[in-house]
Amino acid sequence: MDSIRRRLHPTPVVVQLPIGREDGFTGVVDLVRMRALAWADDSGVFVQESIPEHLVAEAVRRRAELDELVAERHPAALEEYVVRSELSANTLVEALRELTRSGEVVVVLCGAAYGDRGVEPLLDAVVDYLPAPLDRPAVCDVGDPTRRRSATVGVALTAGVAAMPGGLPGSRRCGPCGGGIRN
Fold it and tell me: What's the topology of domain 2-131?
């Protein structure tokens, strides 16, 4: 965490604690929902459990730190924290999403590529904390600069699936309006 703090401008926010280390890594404690997620084998399938006894005190301490850190940075979270002295999981998720979108914080998770441990909670975190396609502005294709044409590409929503093209056929540039990356 010290390395992340030194190298990144956004504040790193730990939302999981590891259960075990290296070869003994068997799961994570979800600090937002105060539960343990454990992987019994290398199938990638986890089971929800209560937090192991030896980690309960650490989890409670870290959750309190998480609540304080978020309340210091988010007005709605601060209001709830002043009244209840803690944050609900829903408030924490919404505040972390807004703080992540603004670039003020970066959420830190645990996982291991071996055995796909942590993949499902990572995907849940993508949904919970990162911007959805509709949260982002439309992408402009600046086209051929000599012909002064441009096209704006929005998000296509079909049957619950969202997609944003990475480039347009025949375009030489893609990316946010006013600039782009050459294909």
Answer: Rossmann fold (3.40.50)
